[in-house]
């Protein structure tokens, strides 16, 4: 009954211990992770130093990028109100051009503006100087310049090397081309014709320069990508421009040149309307001047031929009566003349895409409104064509609107002309009554009045046109750009990338991540046992005990006065064996493993020694007939032993020898290595030997060959009461644990339990790994390879 209780208790303890450990391993043991990291502290230090060193090198040789910023204020009537001086232009009835912030942003982004900047500054040519590690671009202080006299638009990127042979001679070379010349000579290259101009203000500091030439299209596209234009606040009409460049001076020059080009184009747009009006007025002034001169000559000839001195007194009465009608008729005839001129201007197809001058007729508000809308739409179309083509749906839509407005203008002119003609007819009818009376005046007086009337009409028209021309000239001189620069292009004092703090943090984090990833992958992809969870995941066999790493060279690590951790672990095995060998008569313990080198002989010898220290008679049997090691470790002559006894050449008394370790410990050596170990173990004499030995000793410890390689251990299993299966940390393969699973599930071995050997705790918890044990045990198996970061230690034999 007592034996059953001990047996059941041992079973419950084993399963409980296994279940508790599984629960422990399932959770995230932060302490275990930290201890494992601390164990590899040197690896973290090396990687962190390497990461920071890489960051320093990157910061040293990386090309910095600067942000060049500028700000523009756009004249927007919806946000800014009228520009100062706009009231004067309105009084002069000049043309007003309204601007929109979003439209100006699109104009600033247009390719045409950037292309003009690239061509003006020769941005398709870059100059580099070779340094120790990298090439550095130069821009301002250049001792020479590539002056392209002719350059193809569609060319591939090319590179030239200019070497200074002496102060007046140089060489230009590229693939397949090598030429020598003097300064200011021209070169006929595949890309075009170039002239190397020497800049005497800057000395030649380097013997070699590299010049990279790209197409204008490539350079324009590149700088358009580097330019960022945004509207920071929808409530204001300001535009922010930010250009990214590796050379601050170059970026400032490009951005300021872009703003200058933009403002000049804006002023040119306004001046085109005024120039069109002035051109029209100048044309009309020439015609009116000739007509007025002709009328004045007719009057002169009429007076000379009729010897008329002063007709004022003669016609005073007639003029006083017809003055009102004549004045009104003159005004209507002036309007008719202007309307006919504008109608002729509108019929001319060459003026279809020109602005319509509107300052000539101010009496008709309907016509003025249509003209203003037409001119504004035409100007908007021209500005849109700066960033798009005529096939753009928006442009086509504008063309339809312009055609409709032009038709409205012609219709309005026709209606206006008809109304003026009605007024003239009415005035002429009224004037006919007076003319009836004028017929009574001498014919010469009447003819003179006709001449005078024509002169007055032409003179009034001449003065009107001259006045409008002066007003247009004044408005042109008052034209300003639609925007003004608030902040010119200015580079930030420090580069925005690479950011030193970010790079150093990345280097530090990389120094932490790489060793952490290496440790994780080492545990995840490792083929050998690395911790207790590896054992529990691959076999249901319970773990009886753990034996730490033996740092000494002594084979026997237990003694009466020994208090080392490893000695205490063997004492724990002795205690745990009481629960395994719970039945009366259980005394034979067999040790085996998966392969050689896992420490069976070391554990068997020390287990027998610790059992003998308890006062029990213990026999240690060296039953590894293929590769015996115990005799060699204890310095015994192995000429006689089990192999000689089982074939009848030795007696039992001859093979049982005192171990020399303890008075209660005896040894049966294996004897000479036989050619047929398995057949010897199957002999009846082997069974009789174990039966007899049970009567002589309290414990029998049997060291056998690896069960993963030969069947000797299974043959001896029928004589054993318990089996201790050795697994070694960082040595036993995970796949080999399936052997223990098969033995346990099919009960091929009696009371099988695991002993984990060569546990290295280090700074970690549980099984810390990294050192080889060094128990060389034949059978063609190699020791596990040591990692590059593992410590190299001299092997210790167990």
From TrEMBL:
What keywords tag this UniProt record? ATP-binding, Cell inner membrane, Cell membrane, Kinase, Membrane, Nucleotide-binding, Transferase, Transmembrane, Transmembrane helix, Tyrosine-protein kinase
Q: AAA domain location, by residue?
A: 587-715
The Polysaccharide chain length determinant N-terminal domain covers: 27-121
Main enzyme class: transferase
What membrane topology is given?
Multi-pass membrane protein
Q: What is its EC number?
A: 2.7.10.2
- Identify the residues that the record assigns to the Tyrosine-protein kinase G-rich domain, covering every copy: 449-521
Q: Which family does it belong to?
A: Belongs to the etk/wzc family.
Give the matching InterPro entries. Answer: AAA_dom (IPR025669), Bact_polysacc_biosynth/exp (IPR050445), GNVR (IPR032807), LPS_length_determ_N (IPR003856), P-loop_NTPase (IPR027417), Wzc-like_C (IPR005702)
Gene Ontology cellular component?
A: plasma membrane
- Write down what this protein is called: non-specific protein-tyrosine kinase
Please tell me the species this chain comes from: Chitinophaga pinensis (strain ATCC 43595 / DSM 2588 / LMG 13176 / NBRC 15968 / NCIMB 11800 / UQM 2034)
Q: Where in the cell is it found?
A: Cell inner membrane
Q: Which Pfam families match?
A: AAA_31, GNVR, Wzz
Where is this protein chiefly located?
Answer: membrane
Question: GO terms for molecular function, please?
Answer: ATP binding; identical protein binding; non-membrane spanning protein tyrosine kinase activity
Q: Write out the transmembrane intervals.
A: 40-61, 502-521
According to UniProt, the reaction catalysed is: L-tyrosyl-[protein] + ATP = O-phospho-L-tyrosyl-[protein] + ADP + H(+)
Which CDD domains does the UniProt entry name for this protein? BY-kinase
